């Protein structure tokens, strides 16, 4: 269906090639080059216990964050979807409002709460309990991820649940299914596309974040994002930094492929 | 009705979780004491200091300037491109849209690093221009995926029909096509604008000497330790967001359309 108007997309095609595709090629090239010669050093360096541990830690934290968001987010999405129109819209608006607030400020906002002289510890002191180190722990990093990314889990699930045909649920009930069966055999399978996009929307930013570990983790728990940032801005090892970036891209790409395969399989089943 | 009562607590708990830090920040921004949670008295001192801080004011100026130029340019370029994509062959439009998706799907950090590498590869000087280019780069995709679906719902032959009936191309564009796209174009601009204001990671890696946005300023302030000025700044920005949303909401015919567009981006 070609028409003469298609030429209006050409400038962007050129622009996108230069500023979107070319940078990715540059990164891949950098990851194989050091001082002008071909090398696998960056990759070889990454696959040593020290750096593999960083990758595993990032994957572990991102998985935990995703799981927490799913476990908390799903029931909340389900509850909101059952509200009537007006309060549903209000709740959705309340859910989205924090997404419009600067990510850095929101994360920073946890520091006066978690700090050693912060709100939580003051409350503990008042009730005569021991102070706890909240800030600069792995838990704080996890909290920061869940806090920032949980709307990205709830909203896609909510929108799928919202569009669900209620006649299917009624039909299941008419056929004698109890609440549990209706949920497990009808609602849950139908909401799978929402769950899957929620998982990728939470997992991806979690695994690649470098800001939350710096602000809430004190930069002690290094994640793969911190490693990349450090290689580029502090150490100046571009070859290694690029290699890690390529690996991070591959990790995310394979996660997405895995998720979409799972999605398709489930759809074909039903 | 105990069963119905309990779950609502869950929603309430989530809202408390989401809003507590923001609320705490706002309260602390009026606290006289410099550190800690102790309330030592009401003050507007941090707000005054904020408005005297040259670095922050300059960063604020850059943030708004960059967001304005980037979102306006992206909206125009993105709308024109969407028009072109609409008339492309399936295969080439599919390819271009996949490339368009890359900045949305790739982690910020990788986009930022690769863009920085490109700039270095091309020996560009880091500063205002590189920052602006980066913001335009990640804004156009949002405009395209906001405008294109609406454009696809329009008949392909509207333009031709208008031209056949004797309209000049410009007339056809402004009287037939654009009015139907208006809502999505405005949404595209708003999304691009907020994305630009919110961005830290890409800006952090693509800017240079003396040019920073508010996120970068906050980041360097926070690194230097507790600073109540940040609380004041956050409170002001939160208030601005709420006021803006209220205004937008009032001017909109339906909230549903907004939600639909937001959803389109989320589920993309």
Automatic annotation (TrEMBL), chain A:
<dbReference type="GO" id="GO:0005886">
    <property type="term" value="C:plasma membrane"/>
</dbReference>
<feature type="transmembrane region" description="Helical">
    <location>
        <begin position="92"/>
        <end position="114"/>
    </location>
</feature>
<protein>
    <submittedName>
        <fullName>Spermidine/putrescine transport system permease protein</fullName>
    </submittedName>
</protein>
<keyword id="KW-0813">Transport</keyword>
<dbReference type="Pfam" id="PF00528">
    <property type="entry name" value="BPD_transp_1"/>
</dbReference>
<keyword id="KW-1133">Transmembrane helix</keyword>
<dbReference type="InterPro" id="IPR000515">
    <property type="entry name" value="MetI-like"/>
</dbReference>
<keyword id="KW-0812">Transmembrane</keyword>
<comment type="similarity">
    <text>Belongs to the binding-protein-dependent transport system permease family. CysTW subfamily.</text>
</comment>
<feature type="domain" description="ABC transmembrane type-1">
    <location>
        <begin position="55"/>
        <end position="259"/>
    </location>
</feature>
<dbReference type="GO" id="GO:0055085">
    <property type="term" value="P:transmembrane transport"/>
</dbReference>
<feature type="transmembrane region" description="Helical">
    <location>
        <begin position="182"/>
        <end position="204"/>
    </location>
</feature>
<keyword id="KW-0472">Membrane</keyword>
<feature type="transmembrane region" description="Helical">
    <location>
        <begin position="12"/>
        <end position="32"/>
    </location>
</feature>
<feature type="transmembrane region" description="Helical">
    <location>
        <begin position="134"/>
        <end position="161"/>
    </location>
</feature>
<feature type="transmembrane region" description="Helical">
    <location>
        <begin position="240"/>
        <end position="262"/>
    </location>
</feature>
<dbReference type="InterPro" id="IPR035906">
    <property type="entry name" value="MetI-like_sf"/>
</dbReference>
<keyword id="KW-1003">Cell membrane</keyword>
<feature type="transmembrane region" description="Helical">
    <location>
        <begin position="61"/>
        <end position="80"/>
    </location>
</feature>
From TrEMBL, chain B:
<protein>
    <submittedName>
        <fullName>Spermidine/putrescine transport system permease protein</fullName>
    </submittedName>
</protein>
<dbReference type="InterPro" id="IPR035906">
    <property type="entry name" value="MetI-like_sf"/>
</dbReference>
<keyword id="KW-0812">Transmembrane</keyword>
<dbReference type="InterPro" id="IPR000515">
    <property type="entry name" value="MetI-like"/>
</dbReference>
<dbReference type="GO" id="GO:0005886">
    <property type="term" value="C:plasma membrane"/>
</dbReference>
<keyword id="KW-0813">Transport</keyword>
<dbReference type="GO" id="GO:0055085">
    <property type="term" value="P:transmembrane transport"/>
</dbReference>
<dbReference type="InterPro" id="IPR051789">
    <property type="entry name" value="Bact_Polyamine_Transport"/>
</dbReference>
<feature type="transmembrane region" description="Helical">
    <location>
        <begin position="128"/>
        <end position="151"/>
    </location>
</feature>
<keyword id="KW-1003">Cell membrane</keyword>
<feature type="transmembrane region" description="Helical">
    <location>
        <begin position="59"/>
        <end position="83"/>
    </location>
</feature>
<feature type="domain" description="ABC transmembrane type-1">
    <location>
        <begin position="60"/>
        <end position="248"/>
    </location>
</feature>
<keyword id="KW-0472">Membrane</keyword>
<feature type="transmembrane region" description="Helical">
    <location>
        <begin position="9"/>
        <end position="30"/>
    </location>
</feature>
<feature type="transmembrane region" description="Helical">
    <location>
        <begin position="230"/>
        <end position="248"/>
    </location>
</feature>
<comment type="similarity">
    <text>Belongs to the binding-protein-dependent transport system permease family. CysTW subfamily.</text>
</comment>
<keyword id="KW-1133">Transmembrane helix</keyword>
<dbReference type="Pfam" id="PF00528">
    <property type="entry name" value="BPD_transp_1"/>
</dbReference>
């Amino acid at each position: 269906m070609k028409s003469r108007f298609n030429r209006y997309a050409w400038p962007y095609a050129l622009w996108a090639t230069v500023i979107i595709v070319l940078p990715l090629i540059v990164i891949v090239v950098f990851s194989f080059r050091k001082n002008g010669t071909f090398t696998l050093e960056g990759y070889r360096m990454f696959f040593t216990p020290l750096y593999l541990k960083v990758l595993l830690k990032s994957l572990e934290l991102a998985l935990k964050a995703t799981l927490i968001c799913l476990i908390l987010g799903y029931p909340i999405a389900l509850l909101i979807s059952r509200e009537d129109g007006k309060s549903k819209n209000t709740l959705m608006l309340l859910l989205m409002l924090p997404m419009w607030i600067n990510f850095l400020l929101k994360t920073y906002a946890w520091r006066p709460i978690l700090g050693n002289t912060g709100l939580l510890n003051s409350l503990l002191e008042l009730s005569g309990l021991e102070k706890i180190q909240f800030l600069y722990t792995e838990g704080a990093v996890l909290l920061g991820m869940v806090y920032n990314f949980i709307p990205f889990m709830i909203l896609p699930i909510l929108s799928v649940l919202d569009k669900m045909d209620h006649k299917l649920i009624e039909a299941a009930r008419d056929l004698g299914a109890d609440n549990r069966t209706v949920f497990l055999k009808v609602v849950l399978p139908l909401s799978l596309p929402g769950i899957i996009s929620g998982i990728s929307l939470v997992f991806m930013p979690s695994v690649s974040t470098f800001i939350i570990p710096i602000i809430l983790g004190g930069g002690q728990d290094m994640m793969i994002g911190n490693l990349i940032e450090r290689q580029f801005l502090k150490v100046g090892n571009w070859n290694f930094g690029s290699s890690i970036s390529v690996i991070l891209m591959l990790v995310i790409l394979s996660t997405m492929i895995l998720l979409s395969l799972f999605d398709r399989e489930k759809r074909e089943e039903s | 009705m105990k069963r119905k009562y309990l779950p609502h607590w869950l929603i309430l708990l989530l809202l408390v979780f989401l809003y507590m830090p923001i609320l705490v920040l706002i309260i602390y921004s009026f606290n006289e004491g410099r550190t800690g949670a102790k309330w030592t008295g009401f003050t507007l001192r941090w707000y005054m200091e904020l408005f005297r801080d040259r670095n922050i004011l300059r960063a604020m100026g850059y943030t708004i300037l960059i967001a304005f130029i980037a979102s306006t340019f992206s909206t125009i370029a993105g709308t024109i491109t969407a028009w072109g994509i609409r008339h492309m062959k399936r295969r080439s439009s599919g390819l271009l849209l996949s490339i368009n998706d890359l900045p949305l799907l790739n982690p910020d950090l990788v986009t930022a690093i690769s863009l920085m590498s490109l700039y270095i590869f091309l020996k560009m000087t880091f500063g205002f221009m590189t920052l602006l280019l980066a913001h335009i780069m990640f804004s156009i995709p949002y405009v395209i995926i906001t405008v294109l679906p609406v454009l696809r719902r329009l008949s392909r032959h509207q333009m031709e029909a208008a031209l056949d009936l004797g309209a000049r191309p410009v007339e056809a564009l402004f009287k037939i096509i654009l009015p139907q796209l208006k809502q999505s174009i405005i949404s595209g601009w708003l999304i691009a604008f907020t994305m630009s204001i919110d961005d830290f990671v890409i800006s952090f890696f693509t800017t240079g000497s003396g040019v920073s946005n508010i996120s970068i300023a906050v980041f360097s302030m926070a690194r230097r330790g507790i600073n109540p000025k940040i609380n004041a700044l956050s409170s002001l920005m939160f208030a601005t967001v709420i006021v803006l949303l209220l205004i937008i909401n009032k001017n909109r015919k339906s909230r549903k359309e907004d939600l639909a567009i937001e959803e389109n981006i989320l589920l993309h």
